[in-house]
Design brief:
With 261 residues, this protein is of the alpha/beta class. The protein has 2 domains: 156 residues, Alpha/beta knot (3-Layer(aba) Sandwich), CATH 3.40.1280.10; 81 residues, Helicase, Ruva Protein, domain 3, CATH 1.10.8. It is built from 10 helices and 7 strands. A 7-stranded parallel β-sheet has the order 3-2-1-6-4-7-5.
């Protein structure tokens, strides 16, 4: 096994069966992947049945990390691809596993950290989960039967990554153009949404979740660099301070009029 953590990371959101986690570890080992991240596994972790199902591919399980949320699991990643058969309302690029593999190899060669996000066995990924990703990966299968086992989906994506190779990878990004990490994007989202809420942008209230999803998808499609995220946060800060000065001036004027009256 390679001493470094190969990219992409495999992130399982709310996996339900230990046997499926073990089967995922087995196909990860088949195709040179080792970084397994579990988000809120239903039955806790570790689970002995996972090792039994891995058939000796123990290292992804031995090194697996558990996170409470998807946001925490992808905080250090630059690009995250969500695998789902149902893009729903998310306005993100939709790729085949082969197209995604080419992009993943390019990013890996540039030293960027990437991840493949898979949903729970029964329900898959929620629309809100897709807003944290830069693209959607959909496996083209017979529409008469669209159901794939979790390990099958991981195997197809991992196979395409393995066979994509590294030929022709471009040079590394300069530091100021490196894509933002999940944590940096999450900070921007929270900052922007907080100020928009204070400005009364989210109206009517019942539409807030869909408005937030659309804003996040818009920013995710932009593939912002860390420097661009910092610039946008500076813009948001400047606008919020400007609004505060205007409100303070209006308050002073009202007070002056009250005293004069």
């Amino acid at each position: 096994m390679d001493d470094r953590d190969p990219s992409p990371s495999v992130i399982l959101d709310r996996p339900q069966l230990a046997e499926n986690i073990g089967a995922v570890a087995r196909v990860m080992a088949n195709f040179g992947l080792a970084d397994l991240r579990l988000v809120a596994p239903r039955d806790g972790w570790p689970q002995g049945r996972a090792w039994a199902s891995a058939s000796g591919a123990d290292w992804p399980l031995d090194q697996a990390r558990v996170f409470a949320t998807i946001a925490e699991a992808i905080a250090d990643l630059n690009h995250v691809y969500a695998t789902t058969a149902r893009p729903r309302e998310a306005r993100l690029p939709v790729l085949t596993p082969r197209e995604a593999a080419a992009e993943l190899r390019t990013a890996d060669a540039r030293g960027l950290k990437t991840g493949l996000l898979f949903g729970a066995e029964r329900a898959g990924l929620e629309t809100a989960d897709l807003a944290s990703c830069q693209a959607i990966v959909t496996i083209p299968i017979d529409p008469r039967f669209r159901s794939l086992n979790l390990a099958q989906a991981v195997a197809i994506a991992a196979y395409e990554w393995w066979t994509a190779g590294t030929a022709g990878a471009p040079a590394a990004f300069a530091d100021d153009t490196a894509p933002a990490t999940g944590a940096e994007l999450a900070g921007l989202y929270a900052h922007l949404e907080r100020e928009l809420d204070a400005a009364g942008f989210f109206f009517p209230p019942e539409k807030t979740p869909s408005m937030v999803r659309n804003l996040r998808a818009l920013l995710a499609r932009a593939a912002l660099s860390a420097q661009e995220v910092a610039t946008l946060r500076g813009v948001v800060t400047a606008l919020s301070k400007g609004r505060g000065r205007v409100l303070a001036r209006l308050a002073r004027e009202r007070a002056q009029k009250a005293r004069a009256g």
